[in-house]
Amino acid sequence: MLVADKSIVVPGEEVAVGMDFLPTEGVYRDGEKLVASRLGLLSVDGRLVKLIPLAGKYLPKRGDVIVGKVVDVLISGWRIDINSAYTAMLSMKDATSEFIARGADLTRYFTFGDYIVTNIVNVTSQNLVDLTMKGPGLRKLSEGRVITVAPNKVPRIIGKQGSMVGMVKDATGCRITVGQNGIVWLQGEPSQEALAVAAIRKVESESHISGLTERIKAFLDDETKKLQAALNV
Amino acid sequence: MNELLKAHLSRWLGNGRRYDGRMLDVFRPVSVELGVTKNAEGSSRVRIGDTEVMAGVKLAVESPYPDTPKDGNLMVNVELLPLSSPDFEAGPPSEEAIEIARVVDRGIREAKTLDTKKLCIQEGEKVWAVMIDICTINSDGNLLDAAALAAVAALQDTRFPEYTGTSVNYKKLTDKRLPLVRAPISVTVFKLGDFLFVDPSVEEESIFDARLTVALTRDGKICAMQKGGSASLSIDEVGRMVDLAALKASELAGYLQGSNKLK
Amino acid sequence: MGYDKRVDGRRPDETRPIVAKAGIIKRADGSAMFRIGDTVAYAAVYGPRDLFPKFLQDPQRGILRCRYNMMPFSGAGDRVKPGGSRRSKEISMVTETALLPILNLEDFPNAVVDVFVELPQTDAGTRCAGICAAAIALADAGLSMKDLVAAVSVGKVDKMVVVDLNYAEESYENGDVADVPVAFIPRTGQLSLLQMDGLIDKESLKKALELGRQACSRIYDVQKAALKERFASAALVNGNNGAHGPVNGKGDSE
Predict the structure, then answer these.
(1) Which of A197, B34, B68, C187 has its CA 20 to 30 A from that of B47?
(2) According to the CATH classification, is domain B3-253 in 2.40.50.90?
């Protein structure tokens, strides 16, 4: 290795020499050398060398549950902004189990600006993305607030088995939905909602520093005490 | 922004709070820097929160307009650079860019910021032209107030280049400052339902009912106004908006630290 | 007497002082500032994003679109009229071709990556400064690319082969001046921008290009440092906090 594991590398930086290493995501081979092809954290796992991206748009993946926004209502479905390079399609047949008559007013189901929790069922080689609303938890979102986080931080915001976001929900009493695409929807009582946003931002910016769960827990406890003290004055 | 998100944000504003924790009548942190680009005769950089604009003043010797043979020329232009927002496109100026430029221009003109008579070199033949260009670097809400503040700050920073009588030597700036009289400060007040707020975020800018930009001089005179938005305003509301603008304008005036003092 | 000492006292192979910073424009997907001497360039990247009108789309790969622009107050002398010129069109085009060889756009068919270069202050070498800023901004946007691109102007002022001509040198009047803006792909040493105006002999040109390559490798180090600086806090990863271990891959719902 030419660069230590977990260091930041930039495009064009040589990270390893020799045929023992295998380039995977974000790394390419040029003769004997392995070279970074994007900005990221180097991650070495045995012979496998990859980069964990530090920036970049969300790349749609089949099976991801995401939060999208209706940007167009078409003849047979809806066009959805999914915070990615491409918009996605939600077709009539995947939108509801109800029968929709030909020529029906589709805005009765979803209209411009609506936010939905949806599932990616297919991504083609041309990056055409198909969505479905059929599945548990998939629905139109109600009144609330939407924030955008870095898509590469989403796994940390959700946490193992949803532990991190679960903790934020429990502490604040907010309803929170985190899309794999970095769109987060929240709804709660104002001061609690503000706390939930602050906690999510804290996870986002400190996700790489160890002891994250404990730190977020302490943060939520402290802030909750402050809020209660302010109420009792 | 859709109705459900609007309803939620309105509820917050109704509670007197913004998403970023500010009260409704509070600006984000403001900073004004002078002399930020060396080829302009005067320049400034204004930040309001994450909104950032640069203003530059270029001076040139031109013929006066036929109807004002003894006055210098003033021009204000705004470039909403596509670099500063995903919503701006390259190409001819948008309505938004033209509106901001014209409102800033009116404030400066009507406050009589420049003593244009003193910009006359030879009546009917040669006058100084003062050209203010405002470029957006990061567009994160409230560009109008930022642009207006940047324009005045850049005027304060301006020095004349050497003029030989036939040509301008831009390489040599003199110590001579612009003949400035009075500063206009613009504050835009937004109305949503029964609530008034200032210095909106991009999100808040997408949900207001009406807005009123008020340019005030430091002695509290109103020198330009512009109403925007689809809703109408009552006389009483205009009164409240002007009062709030006046309060905030005196606060913003404190950020103008240029050595070329203005009233 | 010829031009044997540079006006600002630099060595022939020495660039003006360089400062670079990544992530200066929050609303952009990637951004950077690159300053060389008194020339300052800002660059912002938006995309990959949908491209309209549709006939511009390429179903094989994403396209790169660059726009080079001088702010109206950025130049020495007269105000630069907004709206672009033949000059700015051409520079936009060569900026595009300087950056294209490093970008992997195959994963983004029909989409566009927009690069906006703005000059708030100029003192020669603006297209090169713009390319340097743009390369940092593209990496900052997280795009897949084989390398960065570094650019500088080289040339000859009277008898002296020099790197990074400033305005005074470009406009030297007592002898021939050649201005050769070049961009190098640092790893391969290949040129992706080459223009020239003025007068120069073959030998001097070859020498100038070699000096340019060396200068670009130093510029690359500055670009690299700017990107690393921006994400420095992300390198603090310590121990087994499982930061990037397996997590439940599904979106979470209330």
Answers:
(1) A197
(2) no
**pTM across the whole model:** 0.94
Residues of C in contact with A208 (CB under 8 A): 233-237, 241, 243
The second-level CATH assignment, the architecture, of A8-53 is Beta Barrel (2.40)
Contact A143 B15 (CB under 8 A): no
Task: Report chain C's mean pLDDT, rounded to a whole number.
Answer: 91
Nearest to B170 among C44, C76, C82 (CB): C76
- Report the alpha-carbon distance of residue C251 to residue C244 in Å, rounded: 16
Residue A103 and residue A34: Cα distance in Å, rounded?
Answer: 56
Q: Is A113 helix (H, G, I), strand (E, B) or coil?
A: coil
The full set of domains in chain C, from first to last, is: 18-230 (3.30.230.70)
The predicted structure's pLDDT at residue A34: 96
> Beta-carbon neighbour count of residue A165 at 10 Å?
25
CB-based contact (8 Å) between A192 and chain B?
Answer: no
- Contact between B7 and A143 using a beta-carbon 8 Å cutoff: yes
In this predicted structure, the answer to whether residue A128 has a pLDDT above a threshold of 50 is yes
Contact A210 C139 (CB under 8 A): no
DSSP string, B21-53: S--TT-PPPEEEEE---TTSSEEEEEEETTEEE
B64 prior amide bond cis, ω within 30: no
Contact B118, B70 (CB under 8 A): no
Nearest CA in chain B to C134: B83
What's the alpha-carbon Rg for chain B, to the nearest Å?
19
Q: What residues in B contact C123, CB-CB < 8 Å?
A: 39
CA-to-CA separations, B108 to B59, B69, B76, B196, in angstroms, rounded: 16, 20, 9, 25
Q: Where are the domains of chain A?
A: 8-53, 65-140, 145-232
Query: What is the 3-state secondary structure of chain C?
Result: CCCCCCCCCCCCCCCCCEEEEECCCCCCCEEEEEEECCEEEEEEEEEEEECCCHHHCCCCCCEEEEEEEECCCCCCCCCCCCCCCHHHHHHHHHHHHHHHHHECCCCCCCEEEEEEEEEEECCCCHHHHHHHHHHHHHHHCCCCECCCCEEEEEEEECCEEEECCCHHHHCCCCCCEEEEEEEEECCCCEEEEECCEECCCHHHHHHHHHHHHHHHHHHHHHHHHHHHHHCHHHHHCCCCCCCCCCCCCCCECC
User: What span, in angstroms and rounded, lies between the C-alpha atoms of A119 and A121?
Assistant: 6
Of C31, C74, C114, which is closest to B39 when you measure between CB atoms? C74
CA-nearest residue of chain C to B92? C83
The answer to whether the CB of B8 falls within 8 A of the CB of A143 is: yes
**Nearest residue on chain B to C120, alpha-carbon basis:** B37
pLDDT in tens, C98-109: 999 999 999 899
| pLDDT the model gives residue C235 | 61
- In CATH terms, A65-140 corresponds, of 2.40.50.140, 2.30.30.240, 2.40.110.20, 3.40.470.10, to 2.40.50.140
Task: Render pLDDT for B34-91 as a digit per residue (tens, 0 to 9).
Answer: 999 999 999 999 999 999 999 999 999 999 999 999 999 999 999 999 999 999 999 9
Q: Residue B180: helix, strand or coil by DSSP?
A: strand
Q: What residues of C are in contact with residue B40 (Cβ under 8 Å)? A: 73-74
Neighbors of chain C by Cβ distance (3+ pairs < 8 Å): A, B
Q: Which of C44, C35, C37 lies closest to C6, judged by CA?
A: C37
Q: Which amino acid is at B122?
A: Q
For residue B199, pLDDT over 70 is answered with: yes
CA distances from B19 to B102, C24, C175, C188 (A): 31, 23, 63, 49
- Domain range A145-232, CATH architecture: 2-Layer Sandwich (3.30)
Q: Which residues from chain B sit within 8 angstroms of residue C134, using beta carbons?
A: none
